[in-house]
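Troubleshooting entry. Yesterday's outputs looked truncated, so today I'm pasting the complete records for two proteins to confirm everything comes through intact. If either block looks cut off, that's the bug. Protein one:
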Amino acid sequence: MGTNLIDAIRKAASAAMALAFVATAASAGAQGLAEGTNYTRLKNAMPVETGKNIEVIEFFSYGCPHCGELEPLLQAWLKSKPADVTFRRIPVMFQPRWENLAKAYYVLEALNEEKLSPEIFVAIHARNAPLWNEKDFLDWIATKGVDRKKAEELFNSFGIVGKVNRAKQLAQSYQIQSVPTIIVDGKYATGPEKLPGGHAGIPPAIDALVQKSRAERPKS
């Protein structure tokens, strides 16, 4: 498939998702979310790591096509994210090659290059780039202006491996069964499969659960 065709497909898909987002946001605002259907309350609330801010976590993997479909919608949401909300990502490793993709995420985080995340999804899912291979990932980010040597030093470093192991523990603690899964304030979970609008329903669902969490917090 040619590059021009891929770009055309991406633009058409983005436009369709944007339209779906608008329609779903309006629907969500009118109908609200139903506990047990559109989101679940965790049996055991988890402590947040973002202090006074409301925490939004996306459990994801670069290897997950559904996470790739959600990515442009999440990026749009992040641009207007409330000031009292902190967004975090935690990579999930449901299959062996996803472990290297988790390392890739934490390497980008360590280098302050997380802005490349949308491009990684495109490279893997639209261009079939095997970025779960360490060498392919390092070669790829070098083409994006990232210091390849620094990235290589980080990839299997003690710090990155520690973060990967911590991510595994968190996925187990939150009992993550599928991705993408969104956790709001350590107590509410939702995902595209729970929402009428699918991926497009995620941003308005996050906003609704943030508002709910904000209202439930003790007044300072």
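Protein two, checking that the full record survives here as well:
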Amino acid sequence: MIVGEDLGTVPQYVPRMMKRHGIRRMSVVQYELTPEHVGKPPKESMASINTHDMPTFAGFWNGDDVGERLAQGLLDERGAAEERERRVKMRAALAKFLAARGLLSEEASRPAAVLEAVLRFLASSDAEMVLVNLEDLWLEREPVNRPGLPERSWRRRMRVPLEQLRSDLLRMVNGEQKTNDVGEEDRGPAQARHA
């Protein structure tokens, strides 16, 4: 399976050509989330919360990226204030969306509870594959990659060794994906691709 990055300023013909050539698209929660809308991953896609160029889930939830963009001169004070206000609305929209689907209790706004609910949503979606950023599992706030800041990118080790990583969320994602594969004629590869 080949997945193409169709995010950002991509010409309109690119998604059509990707589909024509059997290249899967990306569906990224942080990219598609607005104060009014939560995108649902389509079929023939790879779903994720973020990418390596985006804030971690906890960093996004807490708005850490807004302060970083302000420090880099990518936002001014007014723009940062507007973005923080927008982020509050985005968090509320996501929590409401997840609660409406029975994935999050109404009062739950803890990042860990929202993360689990988002992963359950992605895992039960139509997406063929779910990509999980391992650092999201321990609610890392500091991104590993900071576009435009090479001196601060890809410089640190993971804070949690793989041997100690709590992987119950990964097992849940895999289990949800397998449930969605029920009824497919060729279950073996479908189960393997979600491991």
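Both blocks look complete. Sanity check on protein two: The beta strands are 25-28, 45-48, 129-131.
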